[in-house]
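BUG: 3D viewer hangs when loading the predicted structure for this chain

Environment: internal workstation, default settings.
Expected: structure renders.
Actual: progress bar stalls at 90%.

Input used:
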Amino acid sequence: MIVAMQDNKNMKKNVAWNTIGSIYYSFCQWLMTVIVVYLTSDYGVIGTLGLAMTITNSFTTISSFGMRSYQISDSNHQFSDSEYIASRRITAVVAFVLCAIYVIVIGTNIKELICILSYMLLRLVESTEDVYQGILQIYWRYDIIGKSYILRGTLQIFLFVLCFLLTNNLTITFLVMFFSNLVVLILYDKRIVNKIANVVTIIWSNNLIRLFKECAVLVVYYFMANSLATVVRVSIKNHMGQDLLGIYSTVASPTVIVQLLASVVFSPFLPLFAKAYNSGNKKLFSQYIKKIVVCIIIGFIFVNIATILFGKWGLQILYNSDIASHYELLLPLVWCTFFAAAVWLFAGTLISIRAIKPLVCGMTIAFFINYVLSDLLVTTFGLNGASYSQVISEVLLMLYLFVIVMIKKNQIKGVNEG
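Structure tokens produced before the viewer hung:
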């Protein structure tokens, strides 16, 4: 195996590069939502940025097609590296077209339409980077992935500030960022992948149909998961306007750190669930579940106390007194990201043991609940109503997924009890 050729020291070093790089890149993306508050006093611009980020999250999922986890676990090489890359070109085009249709349907004006689609181009480069990173991960080159994150994150934040200061135009800024990231993809990631893997240009292969079928269920789940926040923010825009959406998005931006930390800390441990489950080690599987539950309970207590004690002060430091005056939005938004992280933990567990159908079923119900409640709660409770809608759907989904995980645990019939 390729991994076996790596000594333990290099493995730790490469994983460290990846962890630092992914956190840094996420920080740079979040920093854009902070910096824009200092670059403009127009909350309509801030709202457009928040809407662009939220909408494109959903359609980037279509472009990625839930393929990364499948790609890196394709140990039998059912599909070639070239086919994974070819599939991403197809899904990227489809995602862009669907995003354009969606933005038109929800009633955005032409300026917002062009701006959101410009940002979507940037996200499609990220999606293409993802398939190359999958290849690098197979060859255990996490160091290259981490360095790419750091390079792209630094370039993005620098160009965002420079271009917006010069033009005061988000669309032009996004297009410049798109071309710069495309250059990094071609000259850095793609060039290195071509050196270590046997990659050839493929336009179409019959295998691509099989690949799309294999990953179709996962992309449905990820699309709906990323769309929960999109639904409530579109509701805010329709009922309360772009300026209030800008305020809501600004207060929400620091809360993503909760979900980011959960994914970075727990994702390396998800294969352990699969190992315990597949080996029939019911006792060990149960211990992992107990640890997740304990972490969720302790984490919920911690984030509530931290938000109550330091939330308003943090908003004042990050932004200004105007944003800090909307402190009442923060705690429900923290609940949104916290329960989204909890859902991610249980969902990751089910994906690791290949319990995909009940996962998609639960997310479909949660998405429908969120869609039905969003308009009702926004018109009743204002901006906090959007958070309440998301929290209700996420909590119900989390409890459902926990039940499914426990059912799967009880179905383990192995003789090895640890």
